[in-house]
Design goal:
This protein has 406 residues and is an alpha+beta fold. The relative contact order is 0.20. The strands form three sheets. Strands 5, 6, 7, 13, 14, 15, 16, 17 and 18 form a nine-stranded mixed β-sheet that branches. Strands 1, 2, 9, 10, 11, 12, 19 and 20 form an eight-stranded mixed β-sheet that branches. Bound molecules: flavin-adenine dinucleotide. The site of flavin-adenine dinucleotide has 40 residues, from α1 and β18. Flavin-adenine dinucleotide (FAD) binds next to α1 and β18.
Length: 406
């Protein structure tokens, strides 16, 4: 097969993780031919293009975990990258606000994790300092995270794509090119995609919401299933948007990988509120009524889904209430900004998280990257993977450098 190769490496998925992986491998190995195959007409169409646009500082994550390490490194790299390539970003800071006494223990735990993760400048603050940072926000205690920020991850992804392709005929991002099958041989892989068959020595799977299915095509047992969690946003009207200066976050539930409904000023100057987290019946379905028989079948026939429902039914019920009742959603926001009114909110965008779920109903907390001979699979890269993308790309590069003969 070696003499018929089209590329050395094929990356499946043109989201920010796939592009960053291709870019980092390309930087370290100048002779390697790389293709990125993306099924949509443009890159960054799914999670990368439908998120909160927050540059996370990394305080929530288990110290020494993949998430903690790559978020800290990735954030620094991302900011340096944005500066070098004139991509707009702002370090506006964020506050994580407790509005009830029952949240104080969890707030303290987040703060301790932040200290363990050595997050610069974090401070516990009281009601008066909250008002100084966010004059319309109320709370009994908060953590101020001065180095959190905002950026447009689509712009970052597009820049990475252009750096990968510019001046190189052997590095190409193919859009509208869906991978439909994989044939593995001892010395290479043949990809069956829209437009024909492409051959390479190695495959890197960064297919986000479809990553477990690509692993299955490669006959790799990954031990998890991707379960889609949709999150809906509302947008604040212009007058009300003035009430949010930066980023206002709730105290997260320590048992769940979701950060809760937050108020986010975007780099375009809008203020978004969201996202909630409900099980979606379509992996790439952004409407409340979107349904796919295949995706629902895959989720509902997986024992892990039912075990997760049993474990987190109370949380799930709350999240569905936020999805179907604007008033209930508003009540959650009013805990922070009591002066918000229903007429201040208009429906915004939505996104779907690719969350890996284990067979016992456990939501896989850390990023997961797995290698199997001549293939690498990024199987769990939810938030903060956009912030961490350049560091995840570097981790993929290191794995490829160690195990593939590049
Ligand atoms: C609602 C929401 C809010 C978030 N907020 C933040 C945030 O504020 N900050 C942050 O750091 N992170 C955030 N995240 C997480 C972040 O967006 C993701 O972790 C990151 O974008 C993952 O990138 P990815 O490349 O792995 O996935 P994706 O961007 O989903 O890319 C995967 C790509 O693979 C392609 N693909 C799939 N199957 C195939 C196939 N068969 N053939 C070819 N191509 C295929 C898809 O079309 C897609 O473009 C958020 C996520 C969501 C959903």
């Amino acid at each position: 097969m070696r003499d018929q190769l089209d590329f050395d490496i094929i990356v499946i998925g043109g989201g920010i993780v796939g592009l960053a992986s291709a870019y980092k491998i390309g930087l370290r190995h100048s002779n390697i031919r790389i293709a990125v195959l993306e099924k949509e007409g443009q890159v960054a169409s799914h999670q990368t293009g439908r998120n909160s646009g927050v540059i996370h500082s990394g305080l929530y994550y288990k110290p020494e975990s993949y998430k903690a390490r790559t978020c800290a490194e990735g954030r620094k790299e991302l900011i340096a990258f944005a500066q070098e390539h004139n991509i707009a970003y702002k370090i506006c800071g964020k506050i994580i606000v407790a509005t009830e006494r029952s949240e104080l223990d969890n707030l303290e735990r987040v703060f301790e994790k932040g200290l363990e993760n050595q997050i610069e400048g974090i401070q516990k603050i009281g009601p008066d300092e909250i008002k100084k940072i966010e004059p319309f926000c109320q709370g009994i205690s908060a953590i101020h995270v001065p180095y959190a920020g905002i950026i447009d991850f689509v712009e970052v992804a597009e820049k990475i794509r252009s750096l990968l392709e510019t001046g190189r005929r052997d590095r190409k991002v193919y859009t509208s090119c869906e991978v439909k099958g994989l044939n593995r041989y001892k010395d290479g892989v043949e990809v069956v995609a829209d437009g024909g068959r492409i051959r390479a020595r190695y495959i890197i799977n960064c297919a986000g919401l479809q990553s477990d299915r690509i692993a299955k095509m490669a006959r790799v047992w990954c031990g998890v299933r991707i379960v889609p969690f949709r999150g809906d946003y509302y947008e604040l009207n212009q007058g009300a948007a003035e009430k949010v200066k930066g980023l206002i976050y709730p105290v997260p539930d320590p048992d769940l990988p979701f950060l809760g409904v937050h108020l986010t000023r975007t780099i375009q100057g809008k203020v978004e509120c969201g996202p909630n987290a409900v099980l979606a019946f379509k992996r790439e379905g952004y409407g409340k009524k979107d349904f796919s028989f295949k995706d629902s079948w895959d989720a509902l026939t997986y024992p892990g889904t039912w075990l997760m429902f049993m474990r987190h039914w109370r949380y799930g019920f709350e999240e569905y209430k936020k999805s179907f009742s604007k008033n209930y959603f508003l009540k959650q926001l009013q805990k922070f900004i009591p002066s918000l009114r229903a007429e201040d909110l208009r429906p915004g965008t939505s996104g779907v998280r690719a969350q890996a779920l284990g067979p016992n109903g456990e939501l896989v907390d850390d990023f997961r990257i797995q290698r199997d001979e001549n293939t690498i699979h990024v199987l769990n890269a939810p938030s903060p993977a956009a912030t961490a993308s350049l560091a995840i790309g570097e981790a993929v590069n290191k794995m490829a450098t160690k195990h593939f003969s590049l």
